Amino acid sequence: MTPARESGQSALDLGVSFAGVSLKNPIIAASGTFGYGVEFEDVVHLDKLGGFVVKGLSREPMIGNPPPRLWETAAGMLNAIGLQNIGASAFLTEKLPRLRQIKNIVVFANVFGYTREDYERTIEILNDGEGIAAYELNVSCPNTSEGGVQFGCDPRSLDEVVTTAKRVARRPLIVKLSPNVTSIAQMAYIAQESGADAISLINTFVAMAIDPETRKPRIANITAGLSGPAIKPIALRMVYDAAHAVKIPVIGMGGISTASDVIEFMLAGATAVQIGTASFWDPCATEKIVDELQNWCADRNIARLADLTRGLVLE
Ligand SMILES: Cc1cc2nc3c(=O)[nH]c(=O)nc-3n(C[C@H](O)[C@H](O)[C@H](O)COP(=O)(O)O)c2cc1C
To answer: Which atom of ligand 1 is nearest to the CA of 203?
Structure first.
């Protein structure tokens, strides 16, 4: 350990806060890549993370898509899990009681639906659960009442779903934006004006892979979501664009796998970040990035990490 690290660590403040939620550091495990948290209990010190977002929850359980559902690409991963989950009620009875026993953790509940009423009902169910810090609204789902366009890709649908969620939510509301849009700045602004307390971005890019030998798609669903380091530069640009369009806090994600990736996202405008695909190649990635971040700051005599948010130097 360098002297800078030794002397810097006690004074070092990695804490961040957004939407009334305080975290000991900005590292949050991303939805769909960290189960319901309990599955990682023996692998990661959950209380070392800023927090984690549980798998997307719906009003009823869902079995998801048929396999194959995952495919590794150059520097990334395709997934079409199909939002498999146990449903909001079972989360409250089967997972949350265990999570409540673990001290000093912050749990975010990711919520999705296919109609506005789905989102409304799921949040109403979760409102009864204790130990959830905030909701993260996944708006990257097809709106089945409006011809199947993703909520997050249509300004009017986005406004309606966020307004509905905000009306029923008894906790802070983070709106997780879809990157499959022309103007992320416009969508970020709509989310803010419709009541979001914070935004998070990005979700996966719609993508595909084909086996040239069999001539079949690699994923049974044909199209899938692309994540991992392959998307990082685009995610960073989108976080930058979104952060400059809104006043509410921004949580950045997309391909983060090192502490310096985290710093890039914070400089672009993120208050906190999420780590997704990195946990697939190293289940301890989230915890390791917290350690790395601590050393990164200590080595540079940075006393307060939160000061880096929006710190991009342009001249
Ligand atoms: C296997 C898998 C499942 C996912 N499931 C969800 C989900 O249920 N809800 C959601 O909002 N995002 C989901 N995501 C998207 C991630 O939370 C994250 O936004 C995206 O993967 C980009 O971050 P990354 O490059 O660090 O993985 C999923 C991603 C993967 C790889």
So the answer is: 19
